[in-house]
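Action item from last week, closing it out:
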Amino acid sequence: MSNIERLYSDRAGKMRKSVIRELLKVAQDPEIISFAGGLPNPKSFPINDLVGVIKSVLEDHGDDALQYGTTQGVKGLREIIAERAYKEGIDTTADNIIITSGSQQALDTVGKLFLNPGDTALVGLPTYLGGINAFKSYESNLTGIPLDKDGMQVDILDETIKKLLKNDITPKFIYVVPTFQNPAGVIMPESRRKNLIDIANEYDIVIIEDDPYGKLAYDVPHVKPIKAFDDEGRVIYISTFSKILSPGFRLAWTIASDKLTRKMIICKQALDLCTNTFTQFIVREFIRRGSLDLHILKICEMYKPKRDIMMEALENYFPEGYLCNKPKGGMFAWVTLPKGIDTEILFLDAIKSKVAYVHGKAFHVDDGGSSSMRLNFSYSSNDQIGEGIKRLGNVIEKKLETLTV
């Protein structure tokens, strides 16, 4: 069929490739030191522990674990998640939890549930690319709210909502990654989280709280999720096992009110009927044995030195005038270079020097971020981090020389 494109839906025609997924293809060269993907370090995977867990699941629960499951997810896993959420201040039950096929499915479900073509949602500047792609696939308009060192600026958020309402535009939801934000690495303090709830209550807007990194804390005490302050059932909380156990399991979860949960289950039924049952049983058993919290501690012990090595390398090899706030958790450093450097164009030079990153424009819905880049410090070895930053620093210095000629 020579012109099959003419049969595509309008929505399909507007879909775009994921910048990060395309960059990861380029970075597959084993000689390239990649800071591009948000990849956990494979040495963190508890392979030996999982061998015993998987054997136990097959022997004790094989008939159920290898069968179709309910759309909402294995009840035993949802009950454990509810217990853990309660310890973080979220008053919930297993009935309000859905196990999804990764956080991306949860974000897609949110888009399907709330967004008509032309609708408006509010996101951070910068914000997670996967969220941008999920929401844009439903032909929505995304309005960016700038971040500072404490996350989304709620005063600007309030002003923006007022302006939209004056123009008869009601934003459907506020999407926020409040803890060790991807890509900026910042953490929203409790006072601002409460302010965000107040704004959502005042304007009757839903909050989508995406929390993949909250457990990866290195220098700060735990901060309660925004959902813990939700008295009106307007926060949909999303978290995942991808960063604290294994992304290959493709397991995440949502916590929402009864009404929202029922609707999200219906949306999910059309996507995959049910999430992988086998991996749900594996994770349930892994947590039941008390292994998850110990494993998270091991991950933090591995990642914190990597963060410190990257920060030191940036000081040693990057030119004067760069900006980077030391992330207190998570997996990313957000670097802004001197004006005049376009990191999307610079990427081609970086690849020639065998180092990769994600350019800042990918995380902006307003065409901003041209001089910024996201660097992942969790995946590479300690030696690779130092060498990779050195290579990248040399690339930047050469570019600066061309700008001053």
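Closing note: The longest helix spans residues 291-317.
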